[in-house]
Design a protein that fits this description.
The strands form five sheets. Strands 5-4-14-11-9-8 form a six-stranded mixed sheet, with helices on one face. Helices cover 36% and strands 21% of the residues.
Length: 390
């Protein structure tokens, strides 16, 4: 089925769980594909392939070798394997986003699929395998695949610059959604399996030499890719500003989850179901989400070396106190800040700040429950006494 037509006139088809673009003329291509990747001038088609076998099932390729899979897939699609290249993903081709930006006669189109809820990572995260020791890499579900098309020609230097700008735009989209890494406490910058194919029209009269952020072409790339990445992630997994508007979404990369908070809850009058319900409702509150976001950013700046342990801890306590004041909960106000700012102290302080945030969230949920169940706070003991009947 044809789902779009590119500005070059090339059709975009969806069939056999693939998005396929067959070229109607000469194209210059730069890609990260393992088969016929790099810079090519002899390709006639590119594609994006969904290898997911269904909910709860493992991803399966036509061959254990990625390159061989792409070659076999090209044959299955009716393409010439010698002049085709492609990428694989677990994202559904039904959830593709196609976004176009134009300035004058220059047109950029991004065709994107994506889902990183399980495989998001941050550049520099611990590796999951070493190719020098083990040739076969683990297959992980969660990939953003981008096919980027230009109706103009690009020089050999501008083409890789376009790929760089495209990658920056992808990362900007992910960070604007605050997507967490699944391999560290950092914000994600992509996944470990992302792929990109950049295609320009070698037959166009206009040949551009720059695709950086200062150029109009770079602006078009940034806008098209950011919009397409965000829409693709929302279509595939529901990742969006709305879905991220919850306290738990801000803190799960630090190991703070509903289960973890429940295990640290000291109020055993509260049932597991009631705790879950209270946490869900309280966590949606805008003022609490904003306060937790401020606290989390302090932890990020501590980890990045932009704040000393003392600065992060002192400011963090103010935010925690602000959070408890919102809920009319008294908590311990005195805390001994860190005295030095070396790397070891920063790591220790980060763990201390995580623990303090856990304690605060538990108290907010549990104390709210006590108030709801008919209890009032005793100012002398800072405990809650049950109200008399009637």
């Amino acid at each position: 089925m044809r789902i779009a037509t590119l500005p070059t006139g090339d059709p975009v088809h969806r069939y056999e769980k693939c998005i396929v673009v067959a070229f109607g003329g000469k194209r210059r291509v730069l890609s990260t594909c393992p088969f016929h990747g790099g810079y090519r001038e002899d390709l006639t088609a590119v594609f994006n392939n969904d290898i997911n076998q269904g909910p709860g099932m493992e991803c399966r390729m036509l061959s254990e070798d990625y390159e061989e899979h792409i070659k076999l897939m090209a044959k299955k699609l009716g393409l010439d394997p010698d002049t085709s290249t492609g990428m694989a993903t677990a994202a559904s081709m039904e959830n593709v986003s196609i976004q176009t930006e134009q300035s004058g006669n220059t047109i950029v189109t991004a065709v994107v699929t994506g889902g990183i809820e399980n495989n998001a990572g941050r550049a520099g995260d611990p590796a999951s395998w070493d190719e020098a020791e083990e040739k076969k890499s683990p297959v992980r579900a969660g990939t953003i695949n981008i096919m980027l098309f230009f109706n103009v020609d690009l020089t050999e230097g501008a083409l890789p610059r376009a790929l760089v700008t495209c990658t920056e735009a992808k990362t900007a989209a992910i960070q604007e959604l605050l997507a967490p890494s699944r391999y560290s406490m950092g914000l994600a910058t992509g996944s470990g399996t992302d792929g990109t194919i950049v295609v320009c029209n070698a037959e166009a009269e206009l040949r551009l030499t720059n695709a950086g952020k200062h150029s109009r072409l770079g602006e078009l790339i940034g806008k098209a890719v950011k919009r397409a990445v965000k829409e693709a992630l929302k279509l595939q997994t529901g990742l969006s500003p709305e879905s991220q508007h919850h306290v738990l979404k801000r803190v799960d990369r630090f190991g703070i989850t509903e289960t973890d908070l429940w295990e640290n809850c000291r109020n055993r009058e509260l049932s597991r179901a009631d705790f879950s319900d209270r946490l869900y409702r309280i966590g949606q509150r805008g003022e609490l989400t904003a306060a937790v976001s401020l606290y989390v950013h302090l932890m990020d700046q501590l980890a990045w070396g932009l704040l000393t342990p003392e600065e992060a801890w002192t400011s963090g306590r103010k935010v925690l106190n602000m959070m408890t004041d919102m809920e009319d909960i008294n908590m311990e106000r005195e805390a001994e800040p860190a005295k030095t700012a070396d790397a070891a102290d920063s790591a220790v302080m980060l763990n201390d700040m995580i623990g303090a945030l856990k304690e605060t969230l538990c108290r907010i949920v549990c104390c709210q429950y006590r108030i709801k169940k008919g209890m009032k706070k005793n100012d002398k003991t800072d405990e809650y006494d049950r109200l008399p009947p009637g």
